[in-house]
Amino acid sequence: MPTVTYVAYDGSETIVNGFAGDSVMETAVRNGVPGIVAECGGSLSCATCHVFVCSDSAGVFPPRADLEDDMLDGTAVDREENSRLSCQLKLTDDVAVHVQTPETQV
Amino acid sequence: MSTPAQPRTGTLIVGNCQAGVQIASTLRELGDTGPITLVGEEPHAPYQRPPLSKAFLKGEATADSLAFRTHDFYREHDIELVTRERIVTITRDERGGVAVAESGRIFPFARLALATGAVPRTIPFEGSELEGVTYLRTATEATVLEQQLHQATNVVVVGGGFIGLEVAAGARAAGKNVTVLEAAPRLIGRAVCEQTSEFYLQAHRRRGTRVVLNAKVVRFTGEHDRVTGVELGDGTVVPAEVVLIGVGVIPRTELAGQLGLEVDNGIVVDTHALASDGLTVAAGDCANMPNPSIADFGQGRLRLESVQNAVEQAKVAAATLLGQVAEHKTVPWFWSDQADLKLQIAGLSGGHDQVVLRGDPDSEKFSLLYYRDGILIAADCVNSPLDFMAVRNALHKGQSIPAALATDTAVPLKKSVTDVLLPVPSPAA
């Protein structure tokens, strides 16, 4: 079973057991993890599920597609090298992922 | 803390929907420890509705996969989720009240939130009762529609708004003969300007969908209780095994009416999501509120049917229930996915006096920016997420993008954002 550790802006951690095939965004929202808004439900329309992928998880996900890359230019907190939209990060079996959520999403 | 002398019966939220779930979640986030009951008539745990007209009809989503929260979430946050119970009567005074479901089950409460949503507007044509004539609001309806579409060759969509066009695009992509019948002279007339309407007309026609504007539907024809076609005013009959009617929604205000709340195209609320009794809150599609748009804050009243509005108004409603001061003030935004066309709308364009085109509609990648008195108030962005984000962020900060700069597609819109120069107030005499 994949696990996701969400590190909030204040440093607090929430660890959630997810399911392979679900996104990091869906896993957060279904479990009520604060820090990810995801208004559009994963249709790449809102850029409110911005996360920073921690260095130990950098190689877990395939690279950004163009549309995700474009949307990241409009996030509420400016993007960084490790920025992703978590709706595009699909979990696979038994991965353990660490992501940091920004101070705000809107 | 509850004491035997002051039994508290917690918060009742009517409506298992986006707004309802958000009110419950926010109450807990804000530290409310009282009982919370979320009740609704649908058989499913609350789920996302926007995919019902998109991924759901392709068989790529189910009510379970679209659920907002896990069952564990409700349990862990001590939120009692009650499905299949339709509340039919509510009475209350300033200390609380009682809601009664159709089944007779009783839900007492100290605090009440209405997230009753809306129902599709029905049209009483002859033949509306035929099998194959459907509306789309719930996962149950979407399940039926998906099965019917699967077996159909000819599909007619009555109503050229977002839901109708999304379903039409999906059915066309699946190889159906699709006809959209719109009574008005243009598509999506309620939400976008003429240029955007014209673009969508051409885009759907390019993809092989037949679109009839100024269409006058006379009746639905049928055989053996099944729909076979749609008869138009000129006597022609468009063949159809499936007819989807998407002609808008009507807010559900029956319970608000029972409570004596002011109702006018929705439950009338203030910027704190508080209804006219000063006790009950309402949020989402059912609420008629002062304009929440930063650009026109408080100017007139409106009702918004969007995910973002449901979520943000629900957060305000939850705070209000707890006696905190929060205000519903935002940049309204909307999206619609039709075929490979992603429409994102930022802001409310009402009252615009200028529309500026950025990009080339023939490339299916462009934006239309709306101005009033030279100041940016909204934009329709087609396959242009960067423009959308730039406009949304600018409006959020009370900034503008000069029209003269907006047309240059070589320069990203976010580079052209400027502060709005407010008129200098004249010195007091």
CATH-derived topology of chain A: Ubiquitin-like (UB roll)
CATH top level class name of the largest domain in chain B? Alpha Beta
What's the CATH topology name of the largest domain in chain B? Answer: FAD/NAD(P)-binding domain
CATH class of chain A: Alpha Beta
Structural class of the helix and strand makeup of chain B?
alpha/beta
Secondary-structure element pattern of chain A, one letter each: EEHEHEE
Kindly state the mean pLDDT of chain B as a whole number?
94
CATH architectural type of chain A: Roll
Secondary structure: helix percent of chain B:
10-25%
Please give a handful of descriptors for the protein shown:
A: 106 residues, Ubiquitin-like (UB roll), 5-stranded mixed sheet, B: 429 residues, alpha/beta, FAD/NAD(P)-binding domain, Enolase-like, domain 1, 5-stranded parallel sheet, 28 strands, disordered N terminus
Can you offer a commentary on this structure?
The complex is a heterodimer of chains A (106) and B (429). Chain A is 13% helix and 21% strand. Chain A has 106 residues and is an alpha+beta fold. The radius of gyration of chain A is 12 Å and the shape is globular. Chain B is globular and about 60 Å long. Chain B has 429 residues and is an alpha/beta fold. Helix content of chain B is 21%, strand content 29%. In chain B, the strands form 8 sheets. In chain B, strands 3-2-1-7-19 form a 5-stranded parallel sheet. A 5-stranded parallel sheet of chain B has the order 9-16-10-11-12. A 5-stranded antiparallel sheet of chain B has the order 22-23-26-25-24. The model of chain B is unreliable at 1-7 (pLDDT under 50). In chain B, helix 1 (18-29) links the parallel strand 1 (11-14) and strand 2. The interface between A and B is medium-sized, with 22 and 33 residues.
Topology:
The complex is a heterodimer of chains A (106) and B (429).
Chain A lengths: L2 E5 L5 E5 L6 H7 L19 E4 L12 H7 L10 E3 L10 E5 L6
Parallel strand pairs in A: 1-5
Antiparallel strand pairs in A: 1-2, 3-4, 3-5
Chain B lengths: L10 E4 L3 H12 L6 E4 L31 H6 L2 E4 L4 E7 L2 E6 L4 E4 L1 E4 L3 E3 L12 E2 L4 H13 L2 E5 L3 H12 L3 E5 L12 H13 L3 E3 L4 E7 L2 E7 L4 E3 L2 E4 L3 E3 L2 H5 L8 E2 L12 E2 L4 E4 L10 E2 L4 H15 L11 E6 L2 E7 L6 E7 L4 E8 L2 E8 L2 H12 L2 E2 L2 H4 L11 E2 L10
Parallel strand pairs in B: 1-2, 1-7, 2-3, 7-19, 9-16, 10-11, 10-16, 11-12, 18-20
Antiparallel strand pairs in B: 4-5, 5-6, 8-17, 13-14, 14-15, 20-21, 22-23, 23-26, 24-25, 25-26, 27-28
Helix pairs in contact in B: 1-7
